[in-house]
Amino acid sequence: MNDEQNRLREAKAEINALFQNRYRVVAPIGRGGMGEVYLVVSNDQLRLQRAVKIIHKGDHAKLNAFDEVEALRKLDNPGVPHIIEIKQNDNAFFIVQEYVRGKSFQIIVKENGKVPEETVLLWMQNVAQIMDDVHSQGFLHLDVKPDNIMIQENGKAKLIDFGVAQNLEHRAAGSRGLFGSRYYTAPERLRGEPNDFRTDVFGYGATFYFLVLGERPLEIKANDEAPIIMMKRKLEAVQSPVIRFILQNCISFNPDRRYQKFSDIYADILQKDLYNQAVLNEERKRKSRWYGIIAMFAAGAVLMSAGAFQMHTARSRTYDSLISQGETYMADSNLKKAKHCYQQAIKLKKSEPAGYQGLYETYTANGAYTKVIQGIEELFSSKPAMRDSAELYYLLGNAYYENGDYDRAEYNLKKADDLEPSLEEHLVLGLTYCAQGRYEKAQQVIQKMRRDGNNTDGADYLSGQISERQGYQSDAVSDYKQVISETKDHALKQRAILSLADLYRKRKSFDDEIQMLETAQSEDAFANNIPIREKLGEAYYYAAENGGAAYYQKAIAQYRQLIESGFSSVQTYRNLAICYQKAGRYSQADATLDQMTAAYPDDYTGYMQRCFLILEEEEHRDPDQRNYAAFASNYRTMMHKAGDAASTDSEIAVLESRYEELQEKGWL
Fold first, then answer.
1. Lowest mean pLDDT among 243-257, 283-297, 589-603
2. Are 458 and 492 in contact (CB under 8 A)?
């Protein structure tokens, strides 16, 4: 048996032991200076393919590189492989992450030669988006090169191998040593100077150079600009003016002369057609025999002023287009794509309110009210001009209302009304009065709505809220049903559906709740609606708890779709794990909790739920086969992460009692 076969056998044994046979090793798929990577398949019914990266211990520099992996678990971008879980033994760290199907830039050029310029622009626009988001979340990659960027089967780029990555909070000169290739590494990094955004800009530019010319960059020197000067001369072979411009400003020897952030690169690629045309127009003028020497000297200034105007106009058009696309996606309940459009719009124009309004509308539609509050309050603090936006005040007031802070809700809704009165503000202000028990004020809002005649549906909904809070449930049901059947207002209809679902649940009318929510979900407008899907998952769960065990499977389907949509929460993962546990599918419950703790490493509830899961599993074993070591380990982690919450959480109190009982009986 050769060394590779021996190592494969050892890796299989280590992975099986650490992950309790939850993964089957298929084959090695990569090996480098820091370790190796294996393709694995999960042993549950889903048979999910994952990559397990093994980083060997023993090298101080390698251990330093691993320090950032825990932080990288929080990195949220579809262009970066998702880290699912991390474990370690005495010899190595084991990182389970998303398996990426596709080919690296290195392989693509090796197989096909240089890539057509239009294709390169599309790919590198995608990479610029990814890098900008990675930087905005506080990370540097520090090893951007063709081997570390893959094009997936869907044509989208994926930035891989964050083994050298660095958290901006921890960066220091020379703190990582040199893992990257000298052909793609910025000169200042070779000199051991501090890393920043521009370090990654250089690697991006060198990779761009490799794709468009089909040849490796020259070896970069720490204190010699000559290789970079020679590389820039070779750019004359590139046809696209915007590519030449971008590369000139990415691979400069002096980092101060490079792009300072990836959002500027992204914006310039978006405006490539206008930029290219401006350059071509100037080239034609220079060739014209009617242009004299003075005109030729002035050409640079003409190009800069005309180009700057055209780039500004293009940026405005792109911004407006992104806002429009976001609104279209919102109308289709595609919150993930809408959110992406609004985030890109904000990067183009940080001082315009429309992008922020759209972004916080996506969070509102997803029920992420705390994010809305934190985001808008911070925005008002950092950009006082945003306080002129009635829409932002409305979204903030609505979020406070949904979170039960009615005084702040009233304050912000009145601010919105002062700036620009709207039907939505009046409705939520009426709901706030209702929640405060100020029914007379709420009735005044209803009277105004009916008198104005432009929001009778909103008046009916508010009337239903008052009836429900005063104990007239039948009247409330009637009002909600009327709104659902008659209103053309998508947001108001959603409110009525969710309120009626809650009312049915209070009355334990689970069949009525499920039927109503399933009917809503069957409509195109609500087919992918996150709050309704979440509410339906809860309805299935409660129906299962009240005797309909088959409903667990339906609840599982809803929660899985929520997670796959990218708009899940801590509670979504926990609900899914609980449903698996209730259905007796313990391995799937355990795998879900692994995903939960990977996605939310600072939250204690995943460890708490695993404690309950382990207790139930052990109680199904014969007494002489029981082992509570895993329970004790998760219990200690839970208590550490819970902090002060441990003294107030009733579920922790149950586990504390169980822990003491197991100690008394000698199990621990």
1. 283-297
2. yes
Whether 237 and 125 map to the same domain: the answer is yes
Instruction: Provide the pairing of β-strand 23-32 with 35-42.
Output: antiparallel
Sign of the dihedral through C-alpha 362, 364, 367, 371: positive
Question: Rg of the chain over CA atoms, in angstroms?
Answer: 29
- Cβ neighbors of 150 (< 8 A, separation 6 or more) are 100, 102, 103, 104, 105, 157, 158, 160
Chain CA centroid to CA 634, Å: 27
Q: Is the pLDDT of residue 305 over 60?
A: no
Rounded CA separation 667/659 (Å):
9
Question: Considering its fold, how many domains does the chain have in total?
Answer: 2
Taking residues 184-193, report their average pLDDT: 92
* Whether residue 241 sits in one domain with residue 109: yes
53 carries a ligand binding annotation: yes
Statement to judge: residues 175 and 263 lie in one domain: yes
The C-alpha atoms of residue 489 and residue 642 are separated, in whole angstroms, by: 42
| Residue 57: CATH number of its domain | 3.30.200.20
Q: Look at residue 32 in the predicted model and tell me its pLDDT.
A: 65
- Cβ atoms of 636 and 604 closer than 8 Å: no
Task: Using the 3D structure, point to which of 217, 239, 270 is the last residue of a domain.
Answer: 270
Please state, as a whole number, how many other Cβ atoms lie within 10 Å of the Cβ of residue 564: 9
> What local confidence, expressed as pLDDT, does residue 180 receive?
53
Instruction: List the CATH number of the domain containing 134.
Output: 1.10.510.10
Amino acid at 54: I
Tokens at residue 105, please?
A: 């830039």
DSSP 494-508: HHHHHHHHHHHHHTT
Specify the length of the chain in residues: 668
Per residue in 144-183, pLDDT (tens digit) is: 999 999 999 888 899 988 755 555 544 444 444 444 578 9
Residue 42 in contact with residue 52, Cβ under 8 Å?
Answer: no
Q: How far is CA 501 from CA 342, 518, 520, in A?
A: 31, 11, 11
Q: Note down the domain range covering 266.
A: 103-270
Q: How buried is 624 (Cβ within 10 angstroms: 0-12 exposed, 13-18 middle, 19+ buried)?
A: exposed
Query: What mean pLDDT is predicted for residues 630-650?
Result: 92
Whether 410 maps to a domain, the answer reads: no
Quote the mean pLDDT of the chain: 84
- The CA angle 493-499-503, to the nearest 5 degrees, is 145
Q: Which of 98, 129, 157 is the last residue of a domain?
A: 98
Under DSSP, the state recorded for 240 is: -
87 and 167: one domain?
Answer: no
Q: Is residue 420 part of a domain?
A: no
Cα-to-chain-centroid distance, residue 501 = 29
DSSP string, 577-589: HHHHHHTT-HHHH
184/93 same-domain check: no
393 belongs to a structural domain? no
pLDDT value of position 171: 47
CA–CA distance, 186 with 47 (Å, rounded to integer): 41
**Residue 67 within any structural domain of the chain:** yes
Q: Which amino acid is at 483?
A: V
Which helix (H) or strand (E) segment holds residue 26: the answer is strand 23-32
CA–CA separation, 656 and 177 (whole Å): 46
Same structural domain, 12 and 77: yes
